[in-house]
Write a structure and sequence with these properties.
Layout: E1 11-18, E2 28-35, E3 40-44, H1 51-59, E4 66-71, E5 74-75, E6 86-89, H2 101-108, H3 114-127, H4 143-156, E7 161-165, H5 173-189, E8 193-198, H6 201-207, E9 210-215, E10 218-223, H7 225-230, H8 235-240, E11 245-258, E12 261-277, E13 282-286, E14 298-304, E15 309-315, E16 318-324, E17 336-340, E18 344-346, E19 354-355
Parallel strand pairs: 3-8, 3-9, 6-7, 7-8
Antiparallel strand pairs: 1-2, 1-4, 4-5, 9-10, 11-12, 12-19, 13-17, 14-15, 15-16
Helix pairs in contact: 2-3, 2-4, 3-4, 4-5
Length: about 350
């Protein structure tokens, strides 16, 4: 920005709200977040949670009922999509099937002078590593290559922000992993701010710098992937992002009395609490026959997962999931002790727990 101070946030979303049916709850309710230059944010949540509606309001395809959208310090909420300088990568790529890869990009550069279009298109193909494919048609490319062409076409418009709506969902598992790594690398190389919408937890954790978990139209938690995964704020976040064992207890400071005994908790709390323990944060200790009782925790199943083992353990009318490496190899029916390796995370429940 010339002759004035650059805004703190590249994108600033304030209290965005959308209701499609007056008799139904809002599709998006009071959603606020910001994005730094070069940051990749993931909006994660189940179908119908409001993530795609939020993306479409930012793009200008859906008009919000309330709230503000600032891009580089300028309000864009009332601007049509073509004036927002926001690129959108669709789930189906939306490439012209009867045009070559090069011609798809040349068409996207129609606002540029004719003399420079092909040169600019070839520069973009070089950026996404597809220079050798310029004469091929979309149906002759792999899904990952089509995705890179779609990204190059979006970059052709020189957007300030790129929005990606489930862009990898049509790819098979192996190709999906390599393609998202390539796309992330390209976005970082271009120092491009982006928002990814996905319901795939693994994709969000590996692709994004920050995550926003949405539920029933609201943004329940925002933070780095590590923060959101290791310290979920609510039962929904704990169970949607990976697997979680939920355990009730009575807290006093940094300790809670639970069915597993007295365990460390974070943050400090008082009174009745609901705790989250990730399966990989529990260990199994076999109990000798002399210490085993009829009500001891018992392994009900053992699942080989390639990179680890997953045990299901029945205890006190509850099933606990435990992930271990191969040093712990116990058969179903074994009596065990469940021992946390990390403090239990205190979850927020309205009117229940008081976190310190």
């Amino acid at each position: 920005m010339n002759h004035r101070e650059r805004p703190i946030h590249h994108l600033d979303i304030q209290s965005l709200t959308k209701r499609f049916d007056p008799s139904s709850p809002p599709a998006v309710q009071d959603v606020s977040f910001h994005l730094r230059t070069g940051e990749i944010l993931g909006l994660l949540g189940p179908s119908g949670c409001g993530k795609t509606t939020t993306l479409r309001m930012i793009a200008g395809f859906t008009r919000p009922d309330g709230g503000e959208i600032f891009l580089e310090g300028t309000s864009v909420a009332s601007l049509p999509p073509e004036r927002r300088r926001i690129g959108f990568v669709f789930q189906d790529y939306a490439l012209f099937p009867n045009r070559t890869v090069l011609d798809n990009l040349v068409f996207a550069l129609h606002r540029k002078k004719r003399a420079i279009r092909k040169g600019k298109a070839r520069d973009l193909l070089a950026l996404v590593g597809l220079s050798r494919e310029e004469g091929r048609f979309p149906h002759e490319l792999s899904g990952g290559q089509q995705q890179r062409v779609a990204l190059a076409r979006t970059l052709a418009a020189e957007p300030e922000l790129i929005l990606l709506d489930e862009p990898f969902s049509n790819l098979d598992a192996a190709l999906r992993e390599s393609t998202r790594a390539e796309v992330r690398s390209l976005l970082k190389c271009a120092e491009m701010s982006a928002i990814l919408v996905t319901h795939d937890q693994e994709e969000a954790l590996s692709f994004c710098d920050t995550l926003g978990v949405m539920n029933a139209g609201t943004l329940e938690q925002r933070g780095t992937p590590e923060e959101v995964y290791l310290t979920p704020r609510t039962p929904f976040v704990a169970q949607f992002l990976g697997r979680a064992n939920l355990l009730r207890g009575t807290a006093r400071g940094t300790t809670a009395r639970t069915d597993l005994g007295d365990i460390a908790i974070h943050p400090a709390a008082e009174g009745s609490v609901l705790l989250s323990l990730r399966p990989e944060h529990l260990t199994l200790q076999p109990l000798a026959a002399a210490r085993s009782r009829s009500d001891s925790p018992r392994i009900t199943s053992r699942e080989f997962r390639g990179h680890d083992l997953t045990y299901r353990v029945a205890f006190m009318n509850q099933e606990f999931l435990v992930h271990t490496d191969y040093t712990c190899d116990l058969p179903p029916g074994s009596a065990v002790a469940l021992v946390p390796r990390r403090p239990g995370v205190v979850l927020q429940e309205p009117g229940l727990c008081r976190r310190g």
